[in-house]
Specification:
This protein has 264 residues and is mainly α. The chain contains 9 helices and no strands.
C-alpha cells in the first residue's frame, strides 16, 4: 500500500512541472535534477507515511468505538436481564413463606394443647364450683329452717344478717350439724361474727375448727339448760312455727337467693 502511495505522490509532483512540449522543437529537453527527484521521493514517502498513520488511527478509533458500543450494549443487556430476574424472583419469594422448623411446629402444638387444657380445666372448675355453691345454698337453707323451732327470736335476730357479706362463714357453717344455732349465736354477737369472718378468709380450715368448737359449746349449754328446766317447775317455752329463713329485708329467701351470693 505504501508503494502505491509513493507512486501517486510522484505522479502528482511530476504533473505539477510546467509543460515544455511546445518548446521541444526550439530548445533541448531539460532533465530533472537528482536532488529534485530525491526531494520529491522524500516528500512522497513522508506524505504516504502520514496518510498511512492517519488511516491506522482512523481504524483504531473505529475499532475503539465499536468495542465501546459492544460493551455498552452488553452492559445494558445484563442490566435488563438482572432486572427481569429480580422481578421474576420477587413473586416467587413472596409466594414461598418460610417453613417452620420441626421444633417450632412442636412448640406451637404444645402451646395450643396447653391453652385448650387450661380452658377446659377452668370450665370444669367453674362447673364444680357452681354445683357446690348450689348444694351449699340448699343445705344452708334447709338447716337454717330449723332455727325457728329452737329460738323464739330466731327470725328477728337473723333478719339483720346478710349471707352475701359473709360467704365464707355460710359455706363453712353449712357443713355443721347445728348450723342454725351457730349462725344464731354469731348474729347475736357481732364481735364473734367479725372474728370468725376474718378467720374464714385467711384460714378456712382453722375457722372451720373454731366453728365446730362453738357448736359444741352451744350444744353443751343447751343440754344444761334443758336439764335445769326439767328439774324445775317452769313451763317450757313455746316455740315459733317453722318458716323460711329471712334476709336483711325481712323477705323469705330461696335457694336461688343463696346461690347468687356465691357468684363472682
Amino acid at each position: 500500500m505504501n508503494d502505491e502511495i509513493v507512486e501517486d505522490a510522484l505522479d502528482d509532483a511530476i504533473t505539477t512541472e510546467p509543460d515544455i512540449s511546445d518548446e521541444a522543437d526550439e530548445k533541448p529537453e531539460k532533465m530533472v535534477p537528482q536532488s529534485k527527484v530525491n526531494a520529491l521521493i522524500g516528500q512522497a514517502k513522508k506524505n504516504a507515511a502520514e496518510k498511512a498513520r492517519q488511516q491506522v488511527m482512523n481504524e483504531i478509533e473505529q475499532q475503539k468505538a465499536q468495542v465501546f458500543e459492544q460493551a455498552q450494549a452488553q452492559e445494558q443487556m445484563q442490566q435488563a436481564q438482572a432486572a427481569q430476574s429480580a422481578q421474576t424472583a420477587q413473586p416467587a419469594q413472596a409466594a414461598q413463606a418460610p417453613q417452620p422448623t420441626e421444633q417450632e411446629m412442636y412448640e406451637s402444638i404444645r402451646q395450643r394443647l396447653m391453652a385448650d387444657a387450661e380452658a377446659q380445666r377452668a370450665e370444669q372448675e367453674q362447673q364444680q364450683y357452681t354445683a357446690q355453691a348450689t348444694e351449699v345454698a340448699r343445705t344452708y337453707m334447709e338447716k337454717m329452717g330449723k332455727g325457728n323451732d329452737k329460738f323464739e327470736d330466731f327470725e328477728s335476730v337473723m333478719s339483720g344478717f346478710n349471707p352475701s357479706e359473709f360467704k365464707e362463714i355460710v359455706w363453712l357453717a353449712s357443713d355443721l350439724d347445728d348450723t342454725a344455732s351457730v349462725m344464731y349465736e354469731l348474729a347475736k354477737n357481732p364481735e364473734k361474727l367479725a372474728i370468725m369472718s376474718t378467720l374464714a378468709q385467711k384460714s378456712p380450715e382453722y375457722a372451720k375448727k373454731q366453728l365446730g368448737e362453738l357448736q359444741t359449746s352451744i350444744q353443751s349449754n343447751q343440754q344444761a339448760l334443758e336439764q335445769a328446766q326439767q328439774s324445775g317447775v317452769q313451763e317450757p317455752l313455746s316455740r315459733i312455727k317453722p318458716s323460711s329463713a329471712s334476709g336483711a329485708d325481712g323477705q323469705a329467701r330461696t335457694v336461688r337467693d343463696f346461690k347468687s351470693m356465691f357468684k363472682g
